[in-house]
User: Fold this.
Amino acid sequence: MKFIDVELGWVMDHEDFDVSKHFYQGGAALDPAYYDHGTAVMGEVVGMVNGSGVDGFASNAQWGVVAITVGEWPNVPHYFQEAIDNLEAGDVWLIELQMYPSGFGATPMEWLQVNYDVIWTGCWADGVVCIEAGANGTQDLDSPAWGGVFDRNVRDSGAIMVGAGTPTGRVAEWFTNWGSRMDAHAWGSSIVTAGYGDLYSGGSIQTEYTGTFGGTSGASPMVTGSALCLQGIAKAYYSTPLTPVALRSLLNSTGIDHLDPSKEIGPRPDLGAAVASLLSGTPAQDLPKVEGLRILAATSPFRESTEIRFLQPQSGEVKLSIFDTRGRRIREIHNMVASGQRALVWDGMDSAGRVLSSGVYLYLLEAAGEAATGRVIKLR
Assistant:
């Protein structure tokens, strides 16, 4: 499997990184001020298992980096797209960034619509898994003040968003954001990894290690490593990796519950339980289907209604979600259908029964743990 980290800088030739597995370096010039942060993240994911240094979660993964610039941050969709363009369906990229909207603290990068759009397309259309740091803003992402931006019933980028929990107590770290949008959590402090040099230094930046890395920046690489392990196993066992939504479901459904009485940070991944579920063949929605869900045709442009025809891989529920161009979910249609060539009709109305204006609308079709996307044009 391949993995790309998106942030600002890394010690690319750190002694604990296998340069033979380095497949891509892109984006802007590396920023030395952020070498330690990127190096710590990379150490958690791909640190070599060689009897010294640290052991990464997915040391055999091929790894790459895409660097952004401080000047362009937080408006960086082009760098996100570059990461996706250099990965294939089932591969994983990690957003190790946060932003500060007016009136809010540290916030996940998908708050900005242009960033969200690229994440959404990568997950739902390209099948590339995105892990996104939930940010260190001490904020409730379910608060009405966000206007539903982090409500999956309003919009869902498909990314796996990560909160930070205490290593032993499994309660929210004081700094982490929280809310129903958090898909998983991992350690937010006391992480041993490459970089910084407070734990050990051999005299150069290539030989430095830390015992104090943390934040959602430290939690997210743990979930990234878990995702890479599961994707590798799925690909070896089923000849195809999980879709982003199936992987997110698997990590969430098999994880260990957090113990925080008031802050929802998602479960802590249990890799052993996830692997057991994956290899057991249950639950069905977590497994890839070899034949696959496939869009056959859609009526477009249309005036009153559009028929979306598709190939259903197995009998069961199918869900059609309609989104506007800002990524807001405006309608859901559910039905039980048999396998084979089937169709669903959208009448051009939103969930309140209002006739929608002309324009471009995106649709997401979900069935049997798979997803397919497309767009239609409505005329008045």
Notes: The CA atoms of residues 125 and 373 lie 6 Å apart. Residues 2-286 form a domain with the Rossmann fold fold (CATH 3.40.50.200).
